[in-house]
Write a structure and sequence with these properties.
The structure holds 2 protein chains of 2 kinds. By secondary structure, chain A is an alpha/beta fold. Chain A is built from 9 helices and 10 strands. Chain A has a 6-stranded mixed sheet, sandwiched between helices. A 4-stranded antiparallel sheet of chain A has the order 2-1-4-5, covered by helices on one side. The model of chain A has no long low-confidence stretch (mean pLDDT 92). The longest helix of chain B is centred in the middle third of the chain and has 27 residues. Chain B has 15 helices and 2 strands. The radius of gyration of chain B is 20 Å and the shape is globular. By secondary structure, chain B is mainly α. The chains are: A alpha/beta, B mainly alpha. At the A-B interface, helix 2 and helix 4 of A face helix 1, helix 9 and helix 10 of B.
Chain lengths: 245, 339
Protein backbone atom coordinates (compact mmCIF):
# COMPACT_ATOMS: atom_id res chain seq x y z
CA UNK A 1 0.00 0.00 0.00
CA UNK A 2 1.39 3.35 -1.03
CA UNK A 3 1.81 5.95 1.69
CA UNK A 4 2.73 9.59 1.42
CA UNK A 5 1.63 12.13 -1.19
CA UNK A 6 -0.86 11.05 -3.83
CA UNK A 7 0.70 13.14 -6.58
CA UNK A 8 4.29 14.32 -6.86
CA UNK A 9 5.56 16.76 -9.45
CA UNK A 10 9.31 17.03 -9.73
CA UNK A 11 10.80 19.82 -11.86
CA UNK A 12 7.99 19.49 -14.40
CA UNK A 13 8.65 21.62 -17.46
CA UNK A 14 6.68 22.30 -20.62
CA UNK A 15 7.77 24.49 -23.51
CA UNK A 16 5.86 25.68 -26.54
CA UNK A 17 8.54 26.74 -29.00
CA UNK A 18 10.56 29.35 -27.16
CA UNK A 19 7.93 29.99 -24.49
CA UNK A 20 8.22 28.10 -21.21
CA UNK A 21 4.63 27.52 -20.07
CA UNK A 22 5.50 25.43 -17.01
CA UNK A 23 8.94 26.01 -15.60
CA UNK A 24 10.38 23.37 -13.27
CA UNK A 25 7.33 22.96 -11.04
CA UNK A 26 7.91 20.83 -7.96
CA UNK A 27 4.92 20.18 -5.72
CA UNK A 28 3.08 17.38 -3.96
CA UNK A 29 -0.57 16.73 -3.19
CA UNK A 30 -1.98 14.55 -0.41
CA UNK A 31 -5.02 12.30 -0.82
CA UNK A 32 -8.34 13.66 0.40
CA UNK A 33 -7.25 17.31 0.39
CA UNK A 34 -8.84 20.07 -1.71
CA UNK A 35 -6.15 22.30 -3.18
CA UNK A 36 -6.66 25.63 -4.86
CA UNK A 37 -4.41 26.76 -7.68
CA UNK A 38 -4.33 30.46 -8.38
CA UNK A 39 -2.26 32.79 -10.48
CA UNK A 40 -2.60 35.43 -13.18
CA UNK A 41 -3.77 34.53 -16.70
CA UNK A 42 -1.00 32.84 -18.65
CA UNK A 43 0.79 31.65 -15.53
CA UNK A 44 0.65 27.97 -16.63
CA UNK A 45 -2.24 26.64 -14.52
CA UNK A 46 -4.17 25.03 -17.38
CA UNK A 47 -0.97 23.71 -18.95
CA UNK A 48 -0.14 22.05 -15.63
CA UNK A 49 -3.61 20.44 -15.56
CA UNK A 50 -3.08 19.26 -19.15
CA UNK A 51 0.29 17.76 -18.21
CA UNK A 52 -1.09 15.88 -15.20
CA UNK A 53 -4.09 14.60 -17.18
CA UNK A 54 -1.89 13.45 -20.05
CA UNK A 55 -3.16 15.76 -22.78
CA UNK A 56 0.33 17.28 -23.02
CA UNK A 57 3.59 15.43 -22.78
CA UNK A 58 6.15 16.77 -20.33
CA UNK A 59 9.42 18.05 -21.76
CA UNK A 60 11.34 17.50 -18.54
CA UNK A 61 10.68 16.35 -14.98
CA UNK A 62 8.48 13.61 -13.56
CA UNK A 63 4.84 13.25 -12.55
CA UNK A 64 4.09 10.37 -10.18
CA UNK A 65 0.64 9.33 -8.99
CA UNK A 66 1.04 6.94 -6.08
CA UNK A 67 3.58 4.55 -7.56
CA UNK A 68 2.79 5.21 -11.22
CA UNK A 69 4.94 7.42 -13.40
CA UNK A 70 2.58 9.33 -15.71
CA UNK A 71 4.98 10.96 -18.16
CA UNK A 72 4.77 8.29 -20.86
CA UNK A 73 1.19 7.20 -20.38
CA UNK A 74 -1.49 7.94 -22.95
CA UNK A 75 -4.27 10.33 -21.99
CA UNK A 76 -7.03 7.72 -21.94
CA UNK A 77 -5.05 5.61 -19.47
CA UNK A 78 -5.24 8.36 -16.85
CA UNK A 79 -8.91 7.62 -16.20
CA UNK A 80 -8.00 4.05 -15.25
CA UNK A 81 -5.56 5.42 -12.67
CA UNK A 82 -8.28 7.63 -11.18
CA UNK A 83 -7.36 11.00 -12.68
CA UNK A 84 -10.56 12.79 -13.62
CA UNK A 85 -10.74 16.27 -15.07
CA UNK A 86 -13.06 18.99 -16.27
CA UNK A 87 -12.27 21.53 -18.97
CA UNK A 88 -12.17 25.32 -18.81
CA UNK A 89 -14.44 25.60 -21.85
CA UNK A 90 -17.62 23.71 -20.92
CA UNK A 91 -17.47 20.38 -22.71
CA UNK A 92 -20.19 17.81 -23.20
CA UNK A 93 -21.15 15.16 -25.72
CA UNK A 94 -23.65 17.48 -27.36
CA UNK A 95 -25.71 14.99 -29.34
CA UNK A 96 -26.08 12.63 -26.38
CA UNK A 97 -28.63 13.00 -23.61
CA UNK A 98 -27.56 13.90 -20.10
CA UNK A 99 -28.04 10.29 -18.99
CA UNK A 100 -25.87 9.10 -21.87
CA UNK A 101 -23.25 11.72 -20.97
CA UNK A 102 -23.14 10.33 -17.45
CA UNK A 103 -22.90 6.75 -18.72
CA UNK A 104 -19.95 7.58 -20.97
CA UNK A 105 -17.29 7.11 -18.26
CA UNK A 106 -18.77 3.60 -17.79
CA UNK A 107 -17.85 3.01 -21.46
CA UNK A 108 -14.21 3.84 -20.69
CA UNK A 109 -11.82 1.07 -21.73
CA UNK A 110 -10.99 0.10 -18.14
CA UNK A 111 -14.60 -0.24 -16.93
CA UNK A 112 -16.28 -3.63 -16.71
CA UNK A 113 -19.76 -2.72 -15.42
CA UNK A 114 -22.67 -2.84 -17.87
CA UNK A 115 -24.32 0.38 -18.99
CA UNK A 116 -27.79 -0.76 -17.93
CA UNK A 117 -26.57 -1.52 -14.40
CA UNK A 118 -25.27 2.03 -14.04
CA UNK A 119 -28.44 3.81 -15.24
CA UNK A 120 -29.82 3.96 -11.71
CA UNK A 121 -26.66 5.58 -10.46
CA UNK A 122 -26.73 8.09 -13.35
CA UNK A 123 -30.29 9.01 -12.33
CA UNK A 124 -29.22 9.45 -8.71
CA UNK A 125 -26.30 11.69 -9.76
CA UNK A 126 -28.61 13.81 -11.93
CA UNK A 127 -30.94 14.20 -8.97
CA UNK A 128 -28.06 15.21 -6.71
CA UNK A 129 -26.98 17.88 -9.18
CA UNK A 130 -30.53 19.08 -9.88
CA UNK A 131 -30.34 18.18 -13.56
CA UNK A 132 -32.78 15.28 -13.37
CA UNK A 133 -35.56 17.17 -15.16
CA UNK A 134 -33.25 17.34 -18.21
CA UNK A 135 -32.22 13.66 -18.12
CA UNK A 136 -33.38 12.91 -21.66
CA UNK A 137 -32.46 16.27 -23.20
CA UNK A 138 -29.42 16.52 -25.48
CA UNK A 139 -26.45 18.07 -23.72
CA UNK A 140 -26.17 20.62 -26.54
CA UNK A 141 -29.34 22.24 -25.21
CA UNK A 142 -27.74 23.09 -21.83
CA UNK A 143 -26.49 26.52 -20.82
CA UNK A 144 -22.78 27.03 -20.18
CA UNK A 145 -23.30 26.82 -16.42
CA UNK A 146 -25.38 23.66 -16.69
CA UNK A 147 -22.69 22.11 -18.90
CA UNK A 148 -20.10 22.90 -16.24
CA UNK A 149 -22.34 21.20 -13.68
CA UNK A 150 -22.72 18.23 -16.03
CA UNK A 151 -18.91 17.97 -16.23
CA UNK A 152 -18.81 17.60 -12.47
CA UNK A 153 -21.73 15.18 -12.46
CA UNK A 154 -19.81 13.06 -14.97
CA UNK A 155 -16.89 12.98 -12.56
CA UNK A 156 -19.16 11.22 -10.04
CA UNK A 157 -19.61 8.39 -12.55
CA UNK A 158 -15.88 7.75 -12.85
CA UNK A 159 -14.32 4.81 -11.09
CA UNK A 160 -11.83 5.10 -9.48
CA UNK A 161 -11.54 8.79 -8.60
CA UNK A 162 -8.27 9.56 -6.86
CA UNK A 163 -7.49 13.00 -8.21
CA UNK A 164 -10.04 15.49 -9.53
CA UNK A 165 -8.65 18.30 -11.68
CA UNK A 166 -11.03 21.24 -12.06
CA UNK A 167 -10.06 23.96 -14.52
CA UNK A 168 -12.01 27.17 -13.85
CA UNK A 169 -15.27 25.33 -13.13
CA UNK A 170 -17.10 28.41 -11.80
CA UNK A 171 -16.33 30.82 -14.64
CA UNK A 172 -19.56 32.44 -15.80
CA UNK A 173 -21.74 30.16 -13.69
CA UNK A 174 -24.93 31.44 -12.01
CA UNK A 175 -24.83 31.47 -8.17
CA UNK A 176 -27.51 28.78 -7.79
CA UNK A 177 -25.57 26.37 -9.99
CA UNK A 178 -22.34 27.34 -8.26
CA UNK A 179 -23.77 26.12 -4.94
CA UNK A 180 -24.66 22.77 -6.47
CA UNK A 181 -21.20 22.51 -8.00
CA UNK A 182 -19.55 23.15 -4.66
CA UNK A 183 -21.73 20.50 -3.03
CA UNK A 184 -20.73 18.04 -5.76
CA UNK A 185 -17.02 18.79 -5.33
CA UNK A 186 -17.32 18.21 -1.58
CA UNK A 187 -19.19 14.97 -2.21
CA UNK A 188 -16.50 13.61 -4.53
CA UNK A 189 -13.83 14.64 -2.05
CA UNK A 190 -15.56 13.07 0.96
CA UNK A 191 -17.15 9.95 -0.56
CA UNK A 192 -14.16 8.93 -2.68
CA UNK A 193 -11.40 10.37 -0.54
CA UNK A 194 -10.18 12.07 -3.71
CA UNK A 195 -7.70 14.89 -3.79
CA UNK A 196 -9.00 17.92 -5.70
CA UNK A 197 -6.93 20.50 -7.56
CA UNK A 198 -9.14 23.48 -8.24
CA UNK A 199 -8.00 26.22 -10.62
CA UNK A 200 -10.06 29.32 -10.04
CA UNK A 201 -9.92 33.10 -9.97
CA UNK A 202 -12.78 33.28 -7.49
CA UNK A 203 -11.25 33.80 -4.07
CA UNK A 204 -14.62 33.31 -2.31
CA UNK A 205 -15.02 29.77 -3.65
CA UNK A 206 -11.32 29.06 -3.11
CA UNK A 207 -11.71 30.18 0.49
CA UNK A 208 -14.88 28.13 0.97
CA UNK A 209 -13.50 24.90 -0.49
CA UNK A 210 -9.72 24.70 -0.27
CA UNK A 211 -7.48 23.69 2.59
CA UNK A 212 -4.29 24.61 0.82
CA UNK A 213 -3.34 26.93 -2.01
CA UNK A 214 -0.67 26.82 -4.66
CA UNK A 215 0.31 29.92 -6.62
CA UNK A 216 1.83 30.03 -10.09
CA UNK A 217 3.37 32.94 -11.94
CA UNK A 218 5.12 32.91 -15.34
CA UNK A 219 5.16 29.11 -15.28
CA UNK A 220 6.77 28.87 -11.84
CA UNK A 221 5.33 27.50 -8.60
CA UNK A 222 5.95 30.49 -6.35
CA UNK A 223 4.09 29.69 -3.13
CA UNK A 224 2.11 27.02 -1.32
CA UNK A 225 0.28 26.72 2.00
CA UNK A 226 -2.97 27.67 3.77
CA UNK A 227 -4.76 30.58 2.08
CA UNK A 228 -4.23 33.09 4.90
CA UNK A 229 -0.53 32.35 4.98
CA UNK A 230 -0.04 32.38 1.22
CA UNK A 231 -2.13 35.49 0.68
CA UNK A 232 0.10 37.43 3.05
CA UNK A 233 3.27 36.75 1.08
CA UNK A 234 4.60 39.80 -0.78
CA UNK A 235 5.45 37.83 -3.95
CA UNK A 236 1.85 36.52 -4.17
CA UNK A 237 0.40 39.97 -3.59
CA UNK A 238 2.66 41.40 -6.24
CA UNK A 239 2.09 38.65 -8.82
CA UNK A 240 -1.63 38.08 -8.42
CA UNK A 241 -3.67 39.51 -5.54
CA UNK A 242 -2.65 43.14 -5.89
CA UNK A 243 -3.47 43.79 -2.21
CA UNK A 244 -3.77 41.65 0.95
CA UNK A 245 -7.11 39.83 1.35
CA UNK B 1 -28.18 -6.11 -25.17
CA UNK B 2 -29.98 -4.89 -22.02
CA UNK B 3 -29.86 -1.35 -23.40
CA UNK B 4 -31.37 -2.51 -26.71
CA UNK B 5 -34.21 -4.38 -24.99
CA UNK B 6 -34.88 -1.37 -22.79
CA UNK B 7 -35.00 0.86 -25.85
CA UNK B 8 -37.39 -1.50 -27.70
CA UNK B 9 -39.62 -1.70 -24.61
CA UNK B 10 -39.62 2.07 -24.02
CA UNK B 11 -40.51 2.94 -27.62
CA UNK B 12 -43.26 0.52 -28.62
CA UNK B 13 -44.58 2.72 -31.44
CA UNK B 14 -41.18 3.01 -33.09
CA UNK B 15 -40.49 -0.69 -32.59
CA UNK B 16 -43.88 -1.58 -34.09
CA UNK B 17 -43.40 0.73 -37.07
CA UNK B 18 -39.95 -0.71 -37.73
CA UNK B 19 -41.28 -4.27 -37.60
CA UNK B 20 -44.13 -3.31 -39.96
CA UNK B 21 -41.68 -1.83 -42.49
CA UNK B 22 -39.54 -4.98 -42.35
CA UNK B 23 -42.61 -7.15 -43.02
CA UNK B 24 -43.70 -4.88 -45.89
CA UNK B 25 -40.25 -5.02 -47.49
CA UNK B 26 -40.25 -8.81 -47.12
CA UNK B 27 -43.57 -9.03 -48.96
CA UNK B 28 -42.69 -6.39 -51.55
CA UNK B 29 -41.52 -8.72 -54.38
CA UNK B 30 -44.96 -10.34 -54.41
CA UNK B 31 -46.27 -7.12 -55.96
CA UNK B 32 -43.34 -6.43 -58.30
CA UNK B 33 -42.31 -7.74 -61.71
CA UNK B 34 -38.82 -9.11 -62.36
CA UNK B 35 -37.37 -5.79 -63.48
CA UNK B 36 -38.75 -3.92 -60.49
CA UNK B 37 -37.51 -6.64 -58.13
CA UNK B 38 -34.05 -6.30 -59.65
CA UNK B 39 -34.13 -2.52 -59.13
CA UNK B 40 -35.10 -2.82 -55.46
CA UNK B 41 -32.57 -5.62 -54.98
CA UNK B 42 -29.81 -3.29 -56.19
CA UNK B 43 -31.25 -0.66 -53.85
CA UNK B 44 -30.33 -2.97 -50.97
CA UNK B 45 -26.72 -2.94 -52.15
CA UNK B 46 -26.77 0.80 -51.53
CA UNK B 47 -28.56 0.20 -48.22
CA UNK B 48 -25.66 -2.02 -47.07
CA UNK B 49 -23.08 0.53 -48.19
CA UNK B 50 -25.11 3.36 -46.68
CA UNK B 51 -25.34 1.61 -43.30
CA UNK B 52 -21.63 0.81 -43.35
CA UNK B 53 -20.76 4.44 -44.17
CA UNK B 54 -23.22 5.86 -41.65
CA UNK B 55 -21.56 3.80 -38.90
CA UNK B 56 -18.26 5.39 -39.74
CA UNK B 57 -19.12 8.90 -40.89
CA UNK B 58 -22.47 9.45 -39.21
CA UNK B 59 -21.99 7.90 -35.81
CA UNK B 60 -18.21 8.07 -35.40
CA UNK B 61 -17.55 11.29 -37.31
CA UNK B 62 -14.93 9.77 -39.65
CA UNK B 63 -15.82 11.08 -43.08
CA UNK B 64 -14.37 8.29 -45.23
CA UNK B 65 -14.56 8.56 -49.01
CA UNK B 66 -13.54 4.97 -49.69
CA UNK B 67 -16.65 2.94 -48.93
CA UNK B 68 -17.25 2.17 -52.61
CA UNK B 69 -13.62 1.08 -52.96
CA UNK B 70 -14.01 -1.44 -50.13
CA UNK B 71 -17.15 -2.78 -51.79
CA UNK B 72 -15.14 -3.14 -55.02
CA UNK B 73 -12.35 -4.88 -53.11
CA UNK B 74 -14.99 -7.27 -51.73
CA UNK B 75 -16.25 -7.93 -55.27
CA UNK B 76 -12.83 -8.64 -56.79
CA UNK B 77 -11.50 -10.59 -53.79
CA UNK B 78 -14.56 -12.81 -53.87
CA UNK B 79 -14.15 -13.28 -57.61
CA UNK B 80 -10.49 -14.20 -57.13
CA UNK B 81 -11.36 -16.70 -54.41
CA UNK B 82 -13.98 -18.35 -56.62
CA UNK B 83 -12.16 -18.20 -59.96
CA UNK B 84 -8.58 -18.79 -58.86
CA UNK B 85 -8.96 -20.84 -55.69
CA UNK B 86 -12.12 -22.69 -56.64
CA UNK B 87 -14.04 -21.72 -53.52
CA UNK B 88 -17.83 -21.93 -53.65
CA UNK B 89 -19.48 -18.53 -54.17
CA UNK B 90 -20.65 -18.09 -50.53
CA UNK B 91 -17.08 -18.83 -49.40
CA UNK B 92 -15.81 -16.27 -51.89
CA UNK B 93 -18.18 -13.65 -50.52
CA UNK B 94 -16.84 -14.29 -47.01
CA UNK B 95 -13.28 -13.96 -48.37
CA UNK B 96 -14.32 -10.67 -50.00
CA UNK B 97 -15.62 -9.28 -46.71
CA UNK B 98 -12.52 -10.43 -44.82
CA UNK B 99 -10.18 -8.96 -47.44
CA UNK B 100 -11.97 -5.62 -47.21
CA UNK B 101 -11.71 -5.78 -43.40
CA UNK B 102 -7.97 -6.54 -43.48
CA UNK B 103 -7.27 -3.74 -45.96
CA UNK B 104 -9.57 -1.50 -43.91
CA UNK B 105 -7.46 -2.24 -40.84
CA UNK B 106 -4.34 -1.29 -42.79
CA UNK B 107 -5.81 1.91 -44.18
CA UNK B 108 -7.21 2.76 -40.74
CA UNK B 109 -3.73 2.32 -39.25
CA UNK B 110 -2.39 4.90 -41.67
CA UNK B 111 -5.24 7.41 -41.81
CA UNK B 112 -7.20 7.36 -38.55
CA UNK B 113 -4.80 9.69 -36.76
CA UNK B 114 -5.69 12.29 -39.37
CA UNK B 115 -8.63 14.57 -38.79
CA UNK B 116 -11.42 16.02 -40.89
CA UNK B 117 -10.52 16.89 -44.44
CA UNK B 118 -7.11 15.17 -44.23
CA UNK B 119 -8.73 11.86 -43.35
CA UNK B 120 -11.24 12.32 -46.18
CA UNK B 121 -8.45 13.09 -48.67
CA UNK B 122 -6.43 10.07 -47.50
CA UNK B 123 -9.35 7.68 -48.00
CA UNK B 124 -10.27 9.24 -51.34
CA UNK B 125 -6.67 8.79 -52.56
CA UNK B 126 -6.83 5.12 -51.52
CA UNK B 127 -10.11 4.65 -53.42
CA UNK B 128 -8.65 6.19 -56.57
CA UNK B 129 -5.62 3.92 -56.28
CA UNK B 130 -7.90 0.88 -56.09
CA UNK B 131 -9.76 1.98 -59.21
CA UNK B 132 -6.58 2.65 -61.19
CA UNK B 133 -4.95 -0.62 -60.09
CA UNK B 134 -7.98 -2.61 -61.18
CA UNK B 135 -8.11 -0.76 -64.45
CA UNK B 136 -4.45 -1.06 -65.46
CA UNK B 137 -3.87 -4.68 -64.40
CA UNK B 138 -5.76 -5.93 -67.43
CA UNK B 139 -4.04 -9.32 -67.47
CA UNK B 140 -5.58 -10.10 -64.06
CA UNK B 141 -8.81 -8.10 -63.91
CA UNK B 142 -9.58 -7.67 -67.64
CA UNK B 143 -9.67 -3.95 -66.82
CA UNK B 144 -12.52 -1.92 -68.23
CA UNK B 145 -13.63 -4.88 -70.35
CA UNK B 146 -15.07 -6.32 -67.16
CA UNK B 147 -14.55 -9.60 -65.32
CA UNK B 148 -17.34 -12.19 -65.63
CA UNK B 149 -17.98 -13.99 -62.34
CA UNK B 150 -20.30 -16.87 -61.43
CA UNK B 151 -23.73 -16.09 -60.09
CA UNK B 152 -24.67 -16.94 -56.51
CA UNK B 153 -27.69 -18.92 -57.67
CA UNK B 154 -28.18 -21.02 -60.78
CA UNK B 155 -30.95 -18.74 -61.98
CA UNK B 156 -30.98 -15.16 -63.27
CA UNK B 157 -34.36 -14.65 -61.54
CA UNK B 158 -33.87 -11.68 -59.18
CA UNK B 159 -36.34 -13.11 -56.67
CA UNK B 160 -33.86 -15.19 -54.56
CA UNK B 161 -31.23 -12.43 -54.83
CA UNK B 162 -33.76 -9.96 -53.48
CA UNK B 163 -34.09 -12.00 -50.31
CA UNK B 164 -30.36 -12.45 -49.86
CA UNK B 165 -29.79 -8.68 -50.16
CA UNK B 166 -32.84 -7.98 -48.01
CA UNK B 167 -31.64 -10.37 -45.28
CA UNK B 168 -28.12 -8.92 -45.26
CA UNK B 169 -29.51 -5.36 -45.20
CA UNK B 170 -31.76 -6.14 -42.25
CA UNK B 171 -28.90 -7.92 -40.45
CA UNK B 172 -26.72 -4.85 -41.02
CA UNK B 173 -29.53 -2.65 -39.70
CA UNK B 174 -29.91 -4.90 -36.66
CA UNK B 175 -26.16 -4.88 -36.09
CA UNK B 176 -26.20 -1.09 -36.27
CA UNK B 177 -29.07 -0.91 -33.75
CA UNK B 178 -27.30 -3.26 -31.33
CA UNK B 179 -23.92 -1.55 -31.66
CA UNK B 180 -25.40 1.87 -30.92
CA UNK B 181 -26.68 0.65 -27.57
CA UNK B 182 -23.50 -1.07 -26.50
CA UNK B 183 -20.42 0.54 -25.02
CA UNK B 184 -18.99 0.62 -28.55
CA UNK B 185 -21.92 2.77 -29.68
CA UNK B 186 -21.38 5.17 -26.78
CA UNK B 187 -17.68 5.37 -27.62
CA UNK B 188 -18.45 6.04 -31.29
CA UNK B 189 -20.78 8.92 -30.55
CA UNK B 190 -18.41 10.31 -27.94
CA UNK B 191 -15.55 10.26 -30.48
CA UNK B 192 -17.76 12.09 -32.97
CA UNK B 193 -18.88 14.74 -30.48
CA UNK B 194 -15.60 15.53 -28.73
CA UNK B 195 -12.45 13.42 -28.98
CA UNK B 196 -10.63 15.20 -26.17
CA UNK B 197 -13.50 14.65 -23.77
CA UNK B 198 -13.79 11.02 -24.88
CA UNK B 199 -10.12 10.47 -24.09
CA UNK B 200 -10.54 12.11 -20.68
CA UNK B 201 -13.39 9.66 -20.05
CA UNK B 202 -11.02 6.74 -20.59
CA UNK B 203 -11.85 5.93 -24.21
CA UNK B 204 -8.92 4.82 -26.40
CA UNK B 205 -10.03 6.92 -29.35
CA UNK B 206 -7.60 5.55 -31.94
CA UNK B 207 -8.36 1.92 -31.09
CA UNK B 208 -12.13 2.32 -31.30
CA UNK B 209 -11.99 4.33 -34.51
CA UNK B 210 -10.00 1.46 -35.97
CA UNK B 211 -12.53 -1.11 -34.74
CA UNK B 212 -15.40 0.80 -36.35
CA UNK B 213 -13.40 1.20 -39.55
CA UNK B 214 -12.88 -2.56 -39.76
CA UNK B 215 -16.58 -3.32 -39.08
CA UNK B 216 -17.58 -0.73 -41.66
CA UNK B 217 -15.19 -1.93 -44.37
CA UNK B 218 -16.09 -5.59 -43.74
CA UNK B 219 -19.75 -4.71 -44.25
CA UNK B 220 -18.95 -2.80 -47.44
CA UNK B 221 -16.86 -5.76 -48.66
CA UNK B 222 -19.73 -8.12 -47.93
CA UNK B 223 -22.07 -5.91 -49.95
CA UNK B 224 -19.57 -5.77 -52.80
CA UNK B 225 -19.14 -9.54 -52.80
CA UNK B 226 -22.88 -10.07 -53.01
CA UNK B 227 -23.18 -7.45 -55.73
CA UNK B 228 -20.62 -9.13 -57.98
CA UNK B 229 -22.27 -12.53 -57.77
CA UNK B 230 -25.70 -11.01 -58.34
CA UNK B 231 -24.68 -8.99 -61.42
CA UNK B 232 -22.16 -11.47 -62.84
CA UNK B 233 -19.75 -8.86 -64.18
CA UNK B 234 -17.20 -6.74 -62.31
CA UNK B 235 -15.75 -3.47 -63.49
CA UNK B 236 -13.28 -0.90 -62.12
CA UNK B 237 -16.10 1.60 -62.62
CA UNK B 238 -17.50 0.30 -59.32
CA UNK B 239 -14.67 2.26 -57.67
CA UNK B 240 -15.49 5.52 -59.46
CA UNK B 241 -16.11 8.44 -57.13
CA UNK B 242 -19.66 8.79 -58.46
CA UNK B 243 -20.43 5.55 -56.58
CA UNK B 244 -19.24 7.06 -53.31
CA UNK B 245 -21.25 10.17 -54.10
CA UNK B 246 -24.32 7.99 -54.50
CA UNK B 247 -23.76 6.50 -51.02
CA UNK B 248 -23.46 9.98 -49.53
CA UNK B 249 -26.54 11.18 -51.42
CA UNK B 250 -28.58 8.21 -50.18
CA UNK B 251 -27.57 8.65 -46.54
CA UNK B 252 -28.00 12.43 -46.50
CA UNK B 253 -31.37 12.13 -48.19
CA UNK B 254 -32.62 9.47 -45.79
CA UNK B 255 -31.04 10.91 -42.67
CA UNK B 256 -27.39 11.10 -41.70
CA UNK B 257 -26.82 9.72 -38.19
CA UNK B 258 -30.16 7.96 -38.12
CA UNK B 259 -30.73 4.21 -38.00
CA UNK B 260 -33.27 3.98 -40.81
CA UNK B 261 -31.90 6.88 -42.85
CA UNK B 262 -29.63 4.76 -45.09
CA UNK B 263 -32.48 2.30 -45.75
CA UNK B 264 -35.02 4.95 -46.70
CA UNK B 265 -32.48 7.10 -48.54
CA UNK B 266 -30.88 4.28 -50.51
CA UNK B 267 -34.17 2.77 -51.69
CA UNK B 268 -35.50 6.22 -52.59
CA UNK B 269 -32.29 7.24 -54.37
CA UNK B 270 -32.23 3.94 -56.27
CA UNK B 271 -35.82 4.47 -57.35
CA UNK B 272 -35.06 8.03 -58.45
CA UNK B 273 -31.91 6.94 -60.28
CA UNK B 274 -33.91 4.36 -62.17
CA UNK B 275 -36.68 6.85 -62.96
CA UNK B 276 -34.05 9.32 -64.23
CA UNK B 277 -32.07 6.67 -66.14
CA UNK B 278 -33.10 8.19 -69.45
CA UNK B 279 -31.25 11.38 -68.54
CA UNK B 280 -28.00 9.36 -68.11
CA UNK B 281 -25.23 11.28 -66.31
CA UNK B 282 -27.53 14.25 -65.84
CA UNK B 283 -29.21 12.34 -63.05
CA UNK B 284 -26.15 13.01 -60.90
CA UNK B 285 -26.73 16.72 -61.43
CA UNK B 286 -30.32 16.21 -60.27
CA UNK B 287 -29.03 14.28 -57.25
CA UNK B 288 -26.48 16.96 -56.45
CA UNK B 289 -29.21 19.59 -56.55
CA UNK B 290 -31.37 17.39 -54.33
CA UNK B 291 -28.61 16.97 -51.75
CA UNK B 292 -27.89 20.71 -51.73
CA UNK B 293 -31.60 21.29 -51.23
CA UNK B 294 -31.82 18.79 -48.35
CA UNK B 295 -28.67 20.05 -46.63
CA UNK B 296 -29.76 23.67 -47.06
CA UNK B 297 -33.43 23.32 -46.20
CA UNK B 298 -33.66 20.27 -43.98
CA UNK B 299 -30.27 18.86 -42.93
CA UNK B 300 -31.52 15.95 -40.80
CA UNK B 301 -33.00 14.29 -43.91
CA UNK B 302 -36.22 12.33 -44.02
CA UNK B 303 -35.74 10.12 -40.95
CA UNK B 304 -34.00 12.84 -38.97
CA UNK B 305 -36.93 15.10 -39.71
CA UNK B 306 -39.44 12.48 -38.62
CA UNK B 307 -37.47 11.85 -35.40
CA UNK B 308 -37.39 15.55 -34.62
CA UNK B 309 -41.11 15.81 -35.30
CA UNK B 310 -41.77 12.90 -32.93
CA UNK B 311 -39.63 14.52 -30.22
CA UNK B 312 -41.50 17.80 -30.63
CA UNK B 313 -44.85 16.04 -30.36
CA UNK B 314 -43.62 14.53 -27.11
CA UNK B 315 -42.59 17.99 -25.93
CA UNK B 316 -38.86 17.24 -25.83
CA UNK B 317 -36.02 19.16 -27.45
CA UNK B 318 -34.80 17.35 -30.61
CA UNK B 319 -32.06 14.82 -29.94
CA UNK B 320 -30.32 14.44 -33.25
CA UNK B 321 -28.08 17.29 -34.28
CA UNK B 322 -28.51 18.32 -37.86
CA UNK B 323 -25.82 17.76 -40.43
CA UNK B 324 -25.31 21.49 -40.49
CA UNK B 325 -24.63 21.64 -36.77
CA UNK B 326 -20.91 21.93 -36.24
CA UNK B 327 -19.56 19.06 -34.18
CA UNK B 328 -17.34 20.29 -31.36
CA UNK B 329 -13.86 20.74 -32.75
CA UNK B 330 -11.20 20.06 -30.22
CA UNK B 331 -7.61 21.20 -30.38
CA UNK B 332 -5.13 18.59 -31.45
CA UNK B 333 -3.42 17.45 -28.32
CA UNK B 334 0.14 16.39 -28.43
CA UNK B 335 0.05 12.76 -27.43
CA UNK B 336 -0.74 9.53 -29.16
CA UNK B 337 -3.92 9.12 -27.12
CA UNK B 338 -5.57 11.99 -28.90
CA UNK B 339 -5.12 11.80 -32.66
Amino acid sequence: MHEGPLLRLDRVTKRFGGAVAVDGVTASFDPGVIYGLIGPNGSGKTTLINLISGLYEVDAGTIVLGEHHLEKRLAHQMAALGIVRTFQMPKAFGSMTLVENLLLPVAGDHRRESLSNQRGRAGEVLQHTGLDHLADAPAASLSGGQTMLLQLARALMHEPVRLLLLDEPFAGVAPAIKERMMATIRRINQERGAAVLLVSHEMTTIRALCERIGVMNTGRWIAEGPLAEVAARPEVIEAYLGKPI
Amino acid sequence: MGELLRSLRDQPLRTGLGAAVVVLLALLPLGLNGYQTQVVMLGYFWVILGISWNLLAGYTGQFSLAQHAFATIGSYASAAAVLALGLPVPGGIVVGALTAAVLGYGLGWVTLRLRGIYFAIGTWAFAESVRILLSVNYHITRGDAGLPVPFLFATPDPFPYYYVFFAVSMLALGLNAVVLRTKLGYRMRAIRDDQELAVASGVDVVKWKRVVFVISTALAGLGGGLYGHAIGLLSPNQAQFSQMAFVIIAVVLGGFRTLWGPVVGALLAQGLAEALRISQEWRFVVFAALVILVVRVYPPGIMGGLAMLAERLRGRPPRSPSVGTPVAETPIAERGGVP
